[in-house]
Amino acid sequence: MEVESRRIDVEMGDQISSTPDNSSRSPSKTRGGWRAVKFIIVTDTFEKMATVSLFANITVYLRKMYNMDGILLLNVVNVWNGSTNILTFPGAILSDAFLGRFYTVLLGSVSCMLGMLTMTLGAGIPKLRPPTCNPNNSEHCIQAKPWQLSILFTALILIAIGSGGIRPCNVAFGTDQFDSTTEKGRAQLARFYNWWYFSFTVSLALALTGLVYIQTNISWTIGFGIPTGCFVLSISIYLLGCHTYIFKEPKGSIFIDMVRVFVAAFKKRKVTMTSRGDYVIYNPHIDESSGKIARLSRSNRLKFFDKAAVIVDSSEVNGDGIVVDKWRLCSVQQVEQLKCLIGVLPVTLTGILCNVAMDQQGTFGVLQALQINRKVGNKHFVIPPAWITLTCMASLSIWILIYENIILGIWRKLAKRSGVRWSVKARIRNGIVMAILCMTTGAVIEFKRREAALKAKSFVSPIAIWWMAPQLMLSGLIEAFAAVSMLEFLTTQMPEELRSLASSLYFLCSSMSSYLCTAIVNIMYTASRKKDGTAWLGGHDLNKNRLDYYYAVLACIEIFNLFYFTFVGSKFMIVDKISPSEASDSTDTTS
Question: Residue ranges of the domains in the chain?
Answer without folding.
Answer: 7-13+251-330, 32-245, 342-580
